[in-house]
Amino acid sequence: MRMFTLLPIIAVTCLAAGRPTRAEVDADLRAYAGLLRQIDTGQVDRAMAGLEALARSADNPALRNTATILHRQLTGRSADRLSAFRQRKFADVVVLVPDERSLFEAIQLWEKDAIFPVLIDDAWFAPMFIASYQPKRVVRWRSKDRGAVTPKQIAHWGLRHKTTVDNPPGMVIIEPDSPQRIAGVALAAAYGQPIALVDSPAPLKSPLTAQQAKLMCSQVLFHLTQNNVGGFDYWIALTLAGDYPYRYKVPAKQGYLSALDDLLGHHEGELRYGVCGRLTGDTTMANYQAMASLFLTPRRALMFDGYATRGANFRPWALRTPAQLLRPRFDITLVNDSNTTPDRFAELTRGPRRYDMIWLNTSGMVDHFDLSGRAFPEHLPIGHAAAVHMIHSYSLQSPWDVNTVGGRLLHGGAYWHLGSMHEPYLTAFVTPTAAAARAKRGTPVAFAVRQPPHLPDSKPWKLMVVGDPLWSWRDKPAERVAGTPPEGAELVVYDAEAPPIDRLRAALALGRAVEVELLETLAAQADQLTADQLARVAYLLQRQGRSDLIAGLDADLVKAHPIALAVARDHAIERFDAQIEAGQHLEATRSLPRLVRFLTNTARLEYRLKRWVGVMNSVGQGPRARRMLTALRDHEKTPPRSRTALINALKIEQGNAQAP
Fold first, then answer.
1. 3-state secondary structure of 29
2. Do residues 186 and 118 make contact, with C-beta atoms less than 8 angstroms apart?
3. Beta bridge partners of 255
4. DSSP secondary structure, 310-342, as one string
5. With contact defined as beta carbons under 8 Å apart, do 36 and 80 qualify?
6. Of the given ranges (352-361, 583-592, 641-650), which has the lowest mean pLDDT?
7. Distance of CA 585 to CAs 155, 525, 571, 575, 603, Å?
8. Alpha helices in 491-601 (DSSP H)
């Protein structure tokens, strides 16, 4: 994460009704800046008194509005608009459904005073939710209707539920044919939000033009007006449920990209009126993100401060004070000493003490992050439902790619993640102290991590939130009631005599441990597993220390699921590195084909091949090793960048290495 000097505070609206003088505006802004510094240093009570006074007396109406909003966030009054949701009880049952149609209809069975979690019946995301929610019952249910959900049906549902609460806290923007659409319906139903069907102007991975971005902002504002959503003295939530592009081209700056999600919350690129969050991935992942944000309450938090050994410029973003602020609410582990190594972070997050929330200060790029040493995606935790606040550059540049920082987190189980789609500079991030002070009172966390207006960094920029923008912390978990599952639902039970795959499904649905013997059987039957089942088996084998069985999984099967691929890649790297450290040149050579197939980062692969060349040189096999390294370099210069030829070459060399 790079630093730059904070520009002088400016007034977005210097001259408004009443025409205050420049001196009056500057005085108010200086007072406002001082109050923000107090919040950043943990002097919250003192700052609140000043904000209350500024909200009454500031000459600039926009600054009075800002002071009011920030004061309400710090006192918890901004959470009042979530009261209708907070009053709902949670049914002590999880409903597993096989498809989108069943998901859509199950959500419509929610009652005004009680709701129940509904998840797609997969072997990766659903078990993580169930393990955290710990329901008394798990049932499977399927709609009798086998037809696909149509955009017209979603629109009709939205019209029927348009006025479920007074003064809704936000609006859900749904791309009609996207995989995230029903998850968007779930968030609309839970909070009483209206929905707006808006087509995406471009594919997910293509940045919008400035004109397309402006048009989308106009569409959103139109739907907000039509649904009477919004107000002067509070922010609203904008939930994107669709494959809308993450980036847009900034006018008059050729090649310059910013986050579309941040632009959507600003009026004409200036004052903020709302905070955006988005649901990502396929139907299963997006619905998991929605359900986890609604029903799960974090209890254990890891605050890992990678800035602990850096200079004074990084001190305002330290995690010591926010840890003190949040300790009454969470069981917190704070790491802010000189031993903030990647291995220590991985050890903490992979151990038996799993964390529901992680705050991580670091820097780096899309495919690595720097602590006291360089860390890579394989150091990030997977397999447990968690929310991740990460001060880092580029983590969400390619969130669809499991080999990146953000992609690993989201595919691995993070249901809420603050990140950046490009280099934002450190000052773009709200200090953790200020964010914690706002969020601890019930302010939605996505609101708490956004800069207050009238700062250079409060304009549309690079940060974005994946997950529900209304996700917030409760003082205590919601009340549980027995609940009534949909008619015809079947209770999940574990039958020790059932076929292995059925036993796996039941064990995962009930949160039971999976026996090593069953994992061994399933690994031998990998071709009979679905992609998500294979991912779960590979992950459990890794946690059980049976990496030898991971090495035997078919590479083509593994590539069918991002987490199965990630686990196989982690194992291939770990195995190869251990062989190199031990000087086992023959074993390392035999491991090369799998390493090359799974490790897509060319720089990291070449680094390992150079180490392997060194070992081969030491045993008189240098010429063969150099031929292989040359093949890699030549291959990377030849489009298309397929690795088939290289893999074949390595297979040949593997056979040669086995010869006496």
1. helix
2. yes
3. none
4. S-GGGGGG-SHHHHHHHTTTSEEEEE-SS---H
5. no
6. 641-650
7. 62, 31, 18, 12, 21
8. 500-510, 516-524, 531-543, 547-550, 555-558, 562-581, 585-598
Residues 167 and 81: beta-carbon distance below 8 Å: yes
Within 13 A of 564's CA, how many CA atoms are on the CB side?
26
- Structural contact between residues 448 and 430, judged by C-beta atoms closer than 8 angstroms: yes
CA–CA distances in Å: residue 302 to residues 125, 323, 335: 22, 9, 8
Q: Per this entry, what is the length of the chain?
A: 660
Looking up tokens 């890579």 gives 376
pTM for the model: 0.93
B/e letters for 325-335, b = 16+ CB within 10 Å, e = fewer, are bbeebbebebb
Query: CB neighbours of 121 closer than 8 A, spacing ≥ 6?
Result: 96, 97, 98, 140, 505, 509
Q: Strands, E, within 392-526: which ranges?
A: 414-420, 463-466, 480-481, 490-491
Rg (CA), the chain: 26
pLDDT beyond 60 at 5 = no
The enclosing H or E element of 447 equals helix 445-448
- Residues 110-151: tens digit of each pLDDT: 988 899 999 999 999 999 999 999 999 999 999 999 899 999
| Amino acid symbol at 65 | N
Contact of 562 with 402, CB cutoff 8 Å: yes
Q: Which amino acid is at 507?
A: A
Q: Are 247 and 259 in contact (CB under 8 A)?
A: yes
Asked if 236 contacts 169 with a C-beta cutoff of 8 angstroms, the reply is: yes
Note whether 356 and 473 are within 8 A (CB).
no
pLDDT at 397 over 50: yes
Distance CA 546, CA 384 (A): 20
The Cβ of residue 196 has, within 10 Å, a number of other Cβ atoms equal to: 22
245's tokens: 């592009």
Amino acid at 521: T
**Contact status, residue 168 vs residue 209, Cβ threshold 8 Å:** no
Q: Which residues contact 595 (CB under 8 A, 6 or more apart)?
A: 572, 573, 576, 605, 608
Task: Name the pLDDT band for 191 (thresholds 50, 70, 90).
Answer: very high
| Confidence at residue 1, expressed as pLDDT on a 0 to 100 scale | 61
Crossing angle, helix 531-543 and helix 500-510, to 10 degrees? 70
